[in-house]
Request: fold
Amino acid sequence: MKDRILLMAKDEASAQATRRVLEEAGFRVTVVFAEETLAQAAQEEPPDLVVLDVPFPGDEGLRACQVLKGDPRCARIPLVALVGTFAPEEAEAEAILMRKADACLCKPLEQELLVGQVRELLGEAAGPHREEAPRTILVVDDDAQAVEAVRRAAEREGHRAVQAASPEQGLNLALSLGPDLILVGAMLGGAGPLNLVAQLRRAAPEVPIVLMAPPGLEGPVAEALEEAADGLVAKPLSPGDLRALLRQQLLLRRLRQEGQERTRQAREVKDRLLERHLLLGQEHKRLQQAYRRLQEETAGRESFFEMVIHDLRNPLGVIVGALEVLRQEWLQAAPPDLQEVLRSAEQSALQMMALVDNVLGIERLERGRIPLDRGEVDLLDLIRSTTPLVRARLAAKGLTLVEDLPETLPQVWADWGILARVLLNLLDNAIKFTPSGGTVILSAAYEGEKVQVTVSDTGVGIAPADWDRIFEKFERVRRPGMPQELGSGLGLAFCKLAVEAHGGRIWVRSEEGVGSQFSFTLPVSGEGSAFPPRA
Reply:
C-alpha cells in the first residue's frame, strides 16, 4: 500500500503544487488547512508523514508543529517543514522549528529534494534510526565570517567543513579531499566565479556546488551564477538557513551518488549481457557448423541407405517373380506340404517388397525427391483394381470385405501408383489387426470438393492417446490380445506423407475392442495449387 502523507497548506494554490509533486512520486496525500483539522486528522488516521507548507514563523504554523509533536500519539510521525528565509528577529521561532521538525527545506526547492527527504524520513520511520556518516564540506571563500558560520552549522549536523581561501587551493582540495558539497564565495578573488564553478565541475562532476553571493545581487549576473551552480544563496545566512541548506544539498549529493551507482550497475549488467551475447553468438556459430556437419553426414548416410534399399529391391523382384511362376505353373501339381511352403514363401517375399517400397517412399517423400506422376485418377477404378490383391489374405484369416462405394466419384489429380500403395497399406493394416471372422469395410464419398476414402475394421482398436503417434516412423502400437502382430511402423507413416504430398489429410478414429476407421481426403481435380484447372 502507498505511504500516506498528511499535508497542511496555507491555501489551495500551494496545496495543489505540493500535492502534485508528492502524488507523482507515488504517495497518497490528504490536505488540511487548519491546525485543528491537522491534529484531528493525524489522531483519527495517523499518517506515515506530515508536511507543513504554511507561512513560517507564523503563529499558526508553529502551533501546528508544537501540537503535533506534543501529542504522544503523533510525536513519532516524521514532520517536514517547508519554510522561507528567516529574518534576524525571528531567531526564537527558528530555534523552535529546528528543534521540533525532523527536516526543514527552504523554498523554493527542487522537487527531487522534497521527494528524497520524504523517502529518507519514511525509511527511517520504518526501522531503527541510522546515523548518517560524516560528510566533508569544502568552503572556497576568503570571507572568514561566512566560513565560520558554515563550520558551526556543519558541526551541528555532524559533518566537517574545510576552508580553501583561494580558487587554486579550492581546486586542489576538490581533487584530493573528494568533498560531498562545495560552497563557493561569489566575490572570491582570482578566477571569476563562473570560471571557478566550471573548473570545480570538471574536478568533481557529481558534487553539488552552491554559490554564496553578497546581498542584493540580482539581474543577469545573478541569473548566470544560479544557472551555473546547483544553488545560489545570499549572505549572510542564519544558522537555521545554513543547516537547512546543508541538509538539502547533502541529500542531493546522496541522490546523485545513488543515481551514479545505479548507472554503474546498469553498465555492468549491460557489459555482462554483451559478453553473454558474444558467447551466445560464438556458441550459435559452433552449433551451426556442427549442424552443417551433421547434415552432410546424414545426407551421406541417407544416400547410402537409399542405395542399399534400392539394391535390395532388384533381387527381391526376381524372387517374387520366380515364386509367382512356380505358383502359376507348379502349385496345383505339388504335394500339399510343398504348396503351403510356396504360398508362405511368396507371401513373405511380397511383404518384404512392400517394406522396401515403404522405406524408399518415405525417404524420398521426406526429402522431396519422389517424382509424383500425376494424372487424372478415377478412384473407383483404382479401388477395384486394388482390392483383388488382398483377397487371398482376407480369405486366409476368414475376414469379409464389404465395399460401400457410390456409382460415381469425381476424378482426382494424383499419382496412381502412390495412391494404390496408400490404399493397400490401409487394407493390410485392417487385415493385420482384425481377428478371424471380422469385417473390413471399404467406403468412399464426395464431400465438399473433396473425395474421402475410409477403411474400417472390427479389430482390436487403438487407444486415443496413440491416434497421432501411429503415423510417425517406426511407431508400433501394441494391440491388446495381438502381441504377434507387430509391423515395421512404416506403412502408416508412408500413407501420411503420400496423402499430404497430394494436398490431402489422413486421420484415424478408433474404439478399443470395437474397431478402427482410417480416412483420408484428396482435393478433386482442379482444386488447390497442386492441380491443373478443370477444362
About this structure: The longest strand covers residues 439-447.
